[in-house]
């Protein structure tokens, strides 16, 4: 469950993230770091500017920075969206919350830039105000040259970067949740649990569960179907324009794929896709997919003890009656009779 087992180090592949974070920092010209819900860094600081590096390297001055980070993170959680603010040196920082079902897991902290239009600063909150004659004010004088080297971006640019990082975080969280759920479900199955208990599914969204089910279905099907990928089928020669669609069909056997969906994947019009498909594959899209699914169904009937309705569901048929009808159309017998007389001993 999320509250017990998920933390940022499990949720995000930090080795892969480090490389991505370096690239994001270089492209956006912002310093970027991920912190956990307590504010502790879990990644290195990419693109940390000389000025901020000097400030954060001082045991007294870093306290101001940590106060800004803490408050910025809390505001981002409260708003459940990126929070842009001014630090004690009027430098722009952004806190991007990483949330799972309302639970705060951590944040991406980005910034260390100045605004192109100083007037825009008036709409932002300055979290910490420096006291007069403070050591922080003296540091500003000492490192003034570094301060004026800070990157300058427009308010609009900073906003777009914040939205991009927020979307990226949400995508990574969704992907990671589904992988964790699939792993949990797989472990349950391997331990011979007759069913997935409610605790396994707790804290996951309906979308997570549906996507995990699709992945599990594909894994089950591929385990029993020979030549389960397009690359293994030497008889299939595919036009480059159609290849993305054919690969998708082979890789998503449990889905009820639609012609318009496949045309979109290939980035061509529906009418052109339909004509090209029939010309290149020798039959129309619907017939091709139906025959392919029946071949997969035959493998499942021969190799497994799955019920007819289960096979129908796993192969994406809308209802078992339609599956039986299509099977008999191409094989001349019902799935039941096929299994009875053709199943391998």
Describe this structure in words.
The chain is α+β, with helices and mostly antiparallel strands. The chain has two domains: 2-172; 219-342, Arc Repressor Mutant, subunit A, CATH 1.10.10.60. It has helices at 2-5, 8-11, 14-28, 50-56, 62-79, 135-142, 144-147, 155-190, 198-201, 206-224, 243-251, 259-266, 270-281, 285-303, 308-314, 320-331, 335-342; strands at residues 31-36, 83-86, 92-100, 103-115, 152-153. Strands 1, 2, 3, 4 and 5 form a five-stranded mixed beta sheet that branches. Helix 8 packs across helix 10 and helix 11 (243-251) crosses helix 12. The longest helix is centred in the middle third of the chain and has 36 residues, at 155-190. The chain starts with a helix and ends with a helix. Mean pLDDT is 81; it is low at 1-5. Residues 243-341 form the HTH araC/xylS-type domain. InterPro entries: Homeodomain-like_sf, HTH_AraC, HTH_AraC-typ_CS, PocR_dom, Tscrpt_reg_AraC-type_HTH. It comes from Clostridium diolis.
Largest sheet: 5 strands, mixed
Strand/helix succession: HHHEHHEEEHHEHHHHHHHHHH
Number of domains: 2
Strand content: 5-15%
The coarse overall form would be: elongated
The helix count comes to: 17
> What is the helix fraction of residues, given as a range?
55-70%
Q: Using DSSP, what is the number of strands?
A: 5
Give the averaged pLDDT, no decimals. Answer: 81
Provide the low-confidence segments as ranges. 1-5
Q: Tell me the Rg in angstroms.
A: 28 Å
**Helix- and strand-based class?**
alpha+beta
C-alpha end-to-end distance:
43 Å
């Amino acid at each position: 469950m999320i509250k017990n087992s998920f933390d940022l180090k499990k949720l995000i592949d930090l080795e892969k993230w480090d490389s991505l974070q370096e690239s994001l920092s270089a492209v956006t010209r912002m310093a970027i770091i991920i912190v956990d819900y307590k504010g502790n860094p879990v990644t290195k600081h990419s693109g940390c500017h000389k000025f901020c590096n000097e400030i954060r390297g001082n045991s007294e001055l870093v306290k101001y920075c940590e106060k800004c980070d803490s408050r910025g993170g809390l505001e981002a959680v409260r708003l459940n969206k990126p929070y842009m603010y001014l630090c004690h040196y009027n430098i722009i920082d952004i806190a991007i919350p990483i949330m799972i079902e309302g639970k705060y897991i951590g944040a991406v902290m980005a910034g260390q830039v100045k605004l192109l239009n100083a007037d825009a600063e008036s709409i932002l909150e300055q979290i910490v105000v420096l006291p007069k004659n403070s050591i922080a004010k003296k540091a500003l004088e000492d490192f003034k040259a570094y301060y004026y080297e800070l990157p300058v971006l427009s308010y609009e640019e900073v906003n777009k970067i914040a939205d991009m990082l927020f979307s990226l975080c949400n995508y990574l969280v969704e992907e990671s949740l589904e992988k964790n759920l699939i792993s949990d479900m797989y472990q349950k199955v391997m331990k011979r649990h007759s069913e997935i208990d409610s605790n396994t599914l707790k804290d996951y969204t309906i979308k997570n569960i549906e996507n995990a089910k699709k992945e599990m279905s594909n894994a089950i099907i591929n385990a029993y179907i020979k030549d389960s990928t397009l690359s293994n089928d030497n008889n299939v020669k595919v036009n480059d324009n159609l290849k993305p669609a054919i690969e998708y069909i082979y890789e998503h056997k449990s889905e009820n794929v639609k012609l318009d969906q496949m045309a979109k994947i290939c980035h061509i019009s529906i009418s052109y896709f339909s004509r090209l498909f029939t010309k290149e594959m020798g039959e129309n899209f619907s017939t091709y997919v139906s025959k392919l699914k029946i071949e997969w169904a035959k493998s499942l009937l021969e190799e497994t003890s799955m019920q007819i309705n289960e096979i129908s569901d796993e192969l994406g048929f809308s209802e078992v009656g339609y599956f039986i009808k299509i099977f008999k159309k191409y094989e001349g017998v019902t799935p039941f009779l096929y299994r009875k007389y053709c199943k391998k001993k």
